[in-house]
Structures are given as structure tokens and as C-alpha cells.
Design a protein that fits this description.
Layout: H1 5-20, H2 33-47, H3 63-66, E1 68-70, H4 78-85, H5 89-97, H6 104-107, E2 115-116, E3 122-126, H7 131-136, H8 142-153, E4 163-167, H9 181-198, E5 202-206, H10 208-215, H11 221-224, E6 228-231, E7 234-239, H12 242-247, H13 252-266
Parallel strand pairs: 1-6, 3-4, 3-5, 5-7
Antiparallel strand pairs: 2-4, 6-7
Helix pairs in contact: 1-2, 4-9
Length: about 270
Amino acid sequence: MSAEPRDIRDLARFLSQREDLGLDEVFLEGLTREQVLRAAGGARREARQPSGLSSRETVGTDPKERGSAELPVPEVASASEVDLAGFEYSELAVVAESCQRCRLAKGRTRVVFSDGNPQARLMVVGEAPGANEDRTGLPFVGQAGKFLDLLLASVDLSRKDSVYICNVLKCRPPGNRDPMADEIEHCSPFLKRQIALVAPEVIVAVGTFAAQLLTGTNHPLGKLRGTVYAYEGVPLVVTYHPAALLRNAGWTRSTWDDFQLLRQVMDGS
């Protein structure tokens, strides 16, 4: 099946963004690299023009056809939830700054609470801060953060205006290791309260730990993606972490599909 001209323009823009990051590999079914490169110039020009959320054309399968599932929300420490339930947003951030609930507090430089717009329609939930995030106090900085920004831009979103970004863990695990179960348990009440206060219309979980926590399963990410779930009634899409894409270029097309699904959900398709 050959790609439609509109699809070529959209995919060309995504490729041009990857090239801005110095990433040469891209895997696009039914579309040659030559086709994309021929369309890239026009795609770059289109990307400079403003586009409203409601007018954006999308590609991909209708989310309703992909399937939707309401999955159980994982249990977290109930006492901690009660502790945070009454806090407003500014108070929650202050409490997080002084948190000593787990071992990660001893080794952190900065608490990484959030970035973006607390009134945004979309909430991006990542896994844990890395070295750059620990230094700056902001989630998704460095090359992975730039990649996330480009993925968001490919569906006409930006962290400054239309996205709120946070992580499951607010402190960096030493050596950028995976989060441990008890660390997730201690930090989950902060995330749960953030979701309640921000009240996003859509959530996207990036990375295995964020996806498993918010879907309430232990399934591999590859099996979770492609479906619209619901977290406390909020539509939830899951996808690969940008840092993983930098190591595994073969997941690029899948991530592109996930962001098209996200765009469709936000447009009410």
C-alpha cells in the first residue's frame, strides 16, 4: 500500500526532526527514504505555520477501532495518599521538595517535580529523572528531552503551552538504574495527586514503568501500546520513552503511530 501525499508530508516532517537530532535511521513501512527526503523541504515550511488543535488532520487507525480498556489502578500506600489528598498544587510542590520518603532523597541534587503548563490538556508521565534532570530540576532535558519536544511538535503540541510533564519518580535513581518497587510505591501518591490537580483531558505514559503503573498491569510495553486505556476516567495512551528511541531506531515508526493515536484522542476522533 503506497503512502498518501499527506502521510508523506507528515512523515517527512518527523524525519527532518530526527535529522535535526543527528539521527539518520528511520523505519517507515511503505515509504522510501528518497520519497521522504523529496518532501522534507515542504514539510519544514508547513511546520513553521501555526495550526490549531481542532484543525489538525491525523493519520492512523481510529482509536475506537484500536480498542479501549478500563484497567484497575494499582494500590499505593493509603496513608501517604491521605497525607497528600488535601494539598493544592503549590503546596504539593513544596512538600515534594522536602520529601524524605525513600532512599533516593539522600543522593539527589534537585527534586524534579514538573515542567510545562499545569492547565494543559495533555499530561506526559515519564519514569524517573536522569543526571541532566537532577542537575536542572526539570524533567526531560538533554537529548531525550529534545526528542520528546520534537515528537510533541510533530502533532502540534509544545511543553510551554499545551503540555504538562512529570515523572513517576521525583528523584534520580543512582546511576540511572530502573526504579525499584518500593520507590514507586512511595512516590506514586505525588503523581496521583498531580493528576487530580492538573485534571488533564488525556495522559500519555512514556516508558515501561510509567505505562505499567498507570495501566495497572505488568505487561511488556510492546503489548500495551496501540490501545486507549483509562486512568481514573482519563484516556491514556502509552508509548516508548524517548531515551529508548535514541538507542533503538527500529521503534521510531511505532512511536510515530502512538503519537498519531494520541492526536486522534485529543481531537475526539
